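FORM 7B: Structural annotation worksheet

SECTION A. Query
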Amino acid sequence: MHALRLCACPAWLLTCAALLISAANAQPLPAPVASALAAAGIPQSQVAVLIQDVAADKPALAHNATAPMNPASTIKLLTTYAALELLGPTYLWKTTAWSAAAQTDDVLEGDLTLRGGGDPKLTFEHFWQLLRGLRARGIREIRGDLVLDRSWMDGSNHDPSKFDGEPTRPYNVGPDALLLNFKAFRFFFLPDATRRTVNLLTEPPSTALEVSNTLKLTDGPCGDWLSRIKLEVRTGGRGARAGFAGSYPSSCGEREWNVALLSHQDYVAGVFRKLWEELGGSLQGRIREGGVAAGARLIATQESASLSEMVRDINKYSNNVMARQLYLTLSAELLGTPGRSDRSETVIRGWLEQKGWAMPELVLENGSGLSREERISAANLGRMLVAAFRSPVMPELLASLPLVAYDGTMRRRLKFQPVAGQAHIKTGSLSGVRSMAGYVLDRNGQRKVVVFFINHANAAAGQTAHDALLRWVYESR
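SECTION B. Predicted structure
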């Protein structure tokens, strides 16, 4: 698509303006990269590239590098690097249980409060451990209410439909102080060829979700199996009913599908009731929102994994939900509760200012890259990566990036090629956007920062150009 035609779309105006201004000053791209872009129908004016040795003060190649571009998930590098420096690699999140009520034998005479601390990875198993800790402390019956304290973060302005109109997709789940199991249900489809049925299992179990299953087992190729399943969701009261109909090919074997169906409060409430019952406990009151009562005592704590471990999940697997949690954590921890997107932007801009990094083109929305609005230039993301390599937290950040041909979002790319295992690269993709940024250890043992943004309608075809650049950087003298 011609640059002027693309610029007619309002969503691209900021990017196009800078691209058209800087195009005349663009350095030539390596021949293999230029050829791959041409084959994909992507004009060079719609890409930005920066290559710089980590020991150098200036880039070896800068093509449209000052243009503000949509970075997609490579903006996670800014979020995670800032967090590692501002919070420290050993930072922990805590989910806690409190009560001001007396305990008589195994009866808690009043309310129990669960206070969320923004844990990005409070899994079903970790939540079970917290409840098991309550039982181990002798609590069986809760005579009062279960109070959910979600005040540590404010994600109330999150619209799960905003990005792509798919509110039940797990990647669209918003941040929450009591984010449990990414607020998603995992449905397992288990074909039984003998009985000609499809068994359906749900994890985690919940009293807030009723599931019906009329799926029919069929023969034939697996193909696009998910398109043959009809899911009807009805919400009401404090829960939902999910009805599965349609067909499921036996050739698919066991498959799974993750769906976000409930509000944060209802999700936690349903899972708590089910687990608490399974642990032999009972709850006499209702489940409601509120805060920790004055004079309440701490009963149990569930600690998260360390930040250094969290950033591995965020960057290697491009986990948008965890990135949003981390983004809000910055303001909740450093500015005081509640953590909120606009306040976290203030934290990051203050951190950049302290470092003397002017980034006038920077636009932040949620710090995850799942955004049509976020912008940064290749030059500034590259400058940040050079500085990060000289930072005390370099080992943690570098280890969090996908290793080319081995793991994360790069595990299937460039296998059996010389650059395999020699580059740590964060990828990003949206409709009309393909990006990558990270480090390449070239064949001479020199480490190079590489940033490559594509903002164009044909961006999905740009992976060949990305791979060509990685090979060229590795082989270059």
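SECTION C. Observations
The first strand starts at residue 47 and ends at 53. The two ends are 34 Å apart (CA to CA).

SECTION D. Sign-off
Analyst initials: ____
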